[in-house]
Design brief:
By secondary structure, this protein is of the alpha/beta class. It has 2 domains: 94 residues, Glycogen Phosphorylase B (Rossmann fold, 3-Layer(aba) Sandwich), CATH 3.40.50.2000; 154 residues, Rossmann fold, CATH 3.40.50. The strands form 3 sheets. The chain has a 6-stranded parallel sheet with strand order 8-7-6-9-10-11, sandwiched between helices. α4 crosses α7 and α6 crosses α8. The N terminus and C terminus are likely disordered.
């Protein structure tokens, strides 16, 4: 088969085969309502050509099937590299409690997190994000933005060291459809750090209440209550981290599982192919 998807057989008979197309959407359906009619028309034309449309969240899947009922759609669990796991640290929390939040996704709710922590002296918050301006934490003595504008090797070490520094990861999210924050949940699980997370975006398709401490989104008081509860309950904190890590190990959330599913979809689509009759040159 040549790069254009044409199969040449026997030197004389040519069978034209359209390559199978898998389309993946992450943010499209979050932005759909704000798109112009021209852009919607354009994306509709593109997606109509797909043999399969994949998404990372069951919330996205609902919208995909409603908008494009004639295109086969599937929710595929996202996965990250998980070759090495850190042991869950069964230690008391620090004083103040060390809180970490991270990410660059546009659906992070930094403002509600800052409101929850800035006058909550029992906590010290580190934020890893390129999207947050230091002006937004002006006069917040217990909040720090960690600078990762360094070369990749140094930045990755600081990132892992900061995860290991944390007692608890707190992930605050705005309403979304694409499982915003899933990478952070997975990274925290690998490092054995318990997570408090907004219950939004379909994340419970990846982790349950037994593995992540989910809270309602958009409420600073709920964040404070959750931090207080986990900081005061060692067994709960350790159990959440252990179960989340077990989920990462066996729940199909590794990058290999993610790639394997796409390989399975590809083989399935190719198996359905019925080549047209050959034309003789």
């Amino acid at each position: 088969m040549d790069p254009c998807g044409t199969t040449i057989s026997g030197g004389f008979n040519i069978i034209s085969v359209r390559p199978k197309l898998i389309a993946q959407s992450v943010w499209l359906f979050d932005r759909w309502q704000s798109l112009s009619s021209v852009r919607r028309w354009f994306y509709t034309k593109l997606i109509a050509k797909a043999d399969m449309l994949t998404v990372l969240s069951p919330e996205n899947l609902k919208v995909a099937r409603a908008l494009f009922p004639h295109v086969r759609s599937e929710f595929v669990l996202f996965g990250i590299n998980a070759d090495e796991f850190a042991s869950v640290k069964k230690e008391k929390v620090h004083d103040p409690v060390r809180i970490l939040s991270l990410g660059n996704d546009p659906h992070r709710d930094w403002q509600v997190l800052i409101r929850a922590i800035k006058d909550f002296s029992a906590c010290y918050l580190k934020i890893i994000s390129w999207k947050l301006n230091k002006k937004e934490i002006y006069n917040c003595n217990n909040i720090e933005i960690v600078d990762l504008h360094l070369n990749h090797t140094i930045a990755n070490k600081i990132f892992l060291d900061t995860l290991d520094w944390a007692d608890i990861v707190v992930l605050t999210l705005q309403p979304n459809l694409h499982a915003s924050g899933i990478t952070v949940l997975q990274e925290a699980a690998i490092r054995g750090v318990p997570v408090i997370c907004s219950n939004i975006g379909g994340l419970k398709a990846y982790f349950s209440d037994e593995e992540v401490y989910f809270i309602p989104h958009g409420d600073p008081l709920e964040i404070q209550k959750a931090i207080t509860k986990l900081a005061g309950d060692d067994q709960l904190r350790w159990a959440l981290a252990e179960r989340a890590q077990a989920r990462m190990k066996t729940g199909g959330l590794k990058s290999r599982s993610y790639a394997r599913r796409y390989a399975e979809i590809s083989r399935e689509l190719l198996a359905r192919e019925t080549p047209p009759a050959a034309r003789t040159c």
